């Protein structure tokens, strides 16, 4: 089954209403997705676990237009149809159109392509807007599958809070969707440290493909990621912050170790990323419970508890602190 077959099997045949709207938050993986078992369907080699960040994400409206091409606007600017961003969205929309084109107006409250997972909230918001426009009334699990076809991590952005994306076993990927963990953690904080917000040179799609194909260490990754996910889930259920932080940081560094051990190497870090890591470790030596995680970019995301928020804000002047719950 290819992606078009999957979409056709999921969506009821409906004529689009004129307009639809969707919004979704970005998510930060605590146990990461890195590597695909099916490239077209974005089926992962391992399950992953994330936390969604309210107030940071994407708002998208969609409108059926009488035209021979899509019109795509990002943050009030029309994006040329030849640009990769627009091409990717139009290719995705191909799965859903019946000879019609769309005007997409999308607003991101996070810098695009800066390792802050804007593609995750972007495809999740787009799928929710499509569901609204076509009045499909799909379940969240189905929306998660459709969002996954746009970008793997978008499967998780359909939900708030802690979310697990099951890797699934089936070839058609109909068992590879995300689900929320029914657990709120009021004291938890996520801090965004922006080191460089310009677009990265190697996309996550390309980076993970290179790693899967050209890194001997990668063999160890899927098993380690599954074990980390279990540890993190358990830490969430019993609110064991140190185990959560320790496991999430180690998971991120292990993922980056596979990138670095790829030939040719993929290193998303900048010198300031490394300086910030050292700063986090020094703070831990001073009994301040702070950990970091990093995605396919140079920026760090800190994990800490409310009780340390004041001191963390003192130590990291430009930090943006998010309260996930
Ligand atoms: C490092 O979901 O952006 O952020 O499926 O190719 O679109 P595609 O990749 P994407 O990869 C995210 C990778 C990551 C880890 C994670 O979010 O789990």
Walk me through this protein's architecture.
The protein has 325 residues and is of the alpha+beta class. The chain folds into 2 domains: 3-180, Ribosomal Protein S5, domain 2, CATH 3.30.230.10; 188-322, GHMP kinase, C-terminal domain (Alpha-Beta Plaits, 2-Layer Sandwich). Helix content is 36%, strand content 23%. The strands form 3 sheets. Strands 1, 4, 5, 6, 7, 8 and 9 form a 7-stranded mixed sheet that branches. Helix 3 crosses helix 4 (140-150) and helix 6 runs antiparallel to helix 7. Ligand DP6 binds next to helix 5.
Q: Kindly, what is the distance between the CA atoms of the first and last residues, rounded to a whole number of angstroms?
A: 39 Å
The largest pleated sheet is described as: 7 strands, mixed
Bound small molecules, by name, code or SMILES, are:
ligand DP6
CATH architecture of the largest domain: 2-Layer Sandwich
In terms of per-residue confidence, which ranges show pLDDT below 50 for 5 or more consecutive residues?
none
The share of residues in extended strands comes to 15-25%
Helix residue percentage: 25-40%
Please identify the structural class as seen in this structure: alpha+beta
Total domains: 2
Could you provide a short overview of the structure?
The protein is α+β, with helices and mostly antiparallel strands. The chain has helices at 3-10, 84-94, 118-134, 140-150, 204-214, 221-237, 241-260, 271-285, 309-315; strands at 19-31, 36-38, 43-44, 48-65, 71-74, 77-79, 101-108, 162-165, 178-180, 188-193, 291-293, 300-305, 320-322. It has nine helices and 13 strands.
């Amino acid at each position: 089954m290819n992606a078009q077959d999957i979409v056709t099997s999921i969506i009821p045949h409906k004529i689009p209403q004129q307009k639809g709207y969707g919004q979704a938050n970005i998510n930060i993986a605590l146990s990461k997705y890195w590597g695909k078992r099916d490239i077209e369907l974005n089926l992962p080699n391992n399950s992953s676990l994330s936390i969604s960040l309210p107030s940071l994400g994407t708002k998208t409206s969609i409108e059926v237009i009488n035209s021979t091409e899509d019109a795509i606007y990002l943050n009030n600017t029309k994006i040329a149809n030849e640009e990769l961003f627009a091409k990717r969205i139009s290719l995705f929309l191909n799965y859903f159109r019946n000879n019609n084109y769309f005007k997409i107006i999308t607003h991101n409250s996070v810098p695009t392509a800066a390792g802050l997972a804007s593609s995750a909230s972007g495809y999740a918001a787009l799928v929710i807007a499509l569901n609204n426009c076509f009045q499909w009334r799909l379940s969240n699990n189905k929306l998660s599958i459709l969002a996954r076809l746009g970008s793997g991590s978008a499967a998780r952005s359909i939900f708030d809070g802690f979310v697990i994306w099951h890797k699934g076993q089936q070839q058609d990927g109909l068992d590879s969707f995300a689900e929320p963990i029914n657990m709120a953690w009021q004291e938890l904080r996520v801090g965004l440290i922006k080191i460089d917000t310009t677009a990265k040179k190697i996309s996550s799609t390309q980076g993970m493909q290179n790693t899967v194909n050209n890194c001997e260490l990668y063999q160890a990754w899927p098993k380690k990621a599954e074990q980390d996910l279990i540890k993190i889930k358990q830490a969430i259920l019993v609110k064991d912050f140190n185990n959560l932080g320790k496991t999430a940081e180690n998971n991120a560094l292990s993922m980056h170790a596979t990138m670095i051990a790829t030939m040719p190497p993929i290193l998303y870090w900048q010198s300031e990323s490394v300086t910030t890591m050292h700063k986090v470790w020094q703070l831990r030596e001073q009994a301040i419970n702070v950990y970091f995680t990093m995605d396919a970019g140079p920026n760090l995301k800190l994990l800490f508890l409310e009780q340390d928020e004041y001191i963390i804000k003192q130590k990291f002047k430009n930090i943006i602190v998010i309260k996930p719950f």
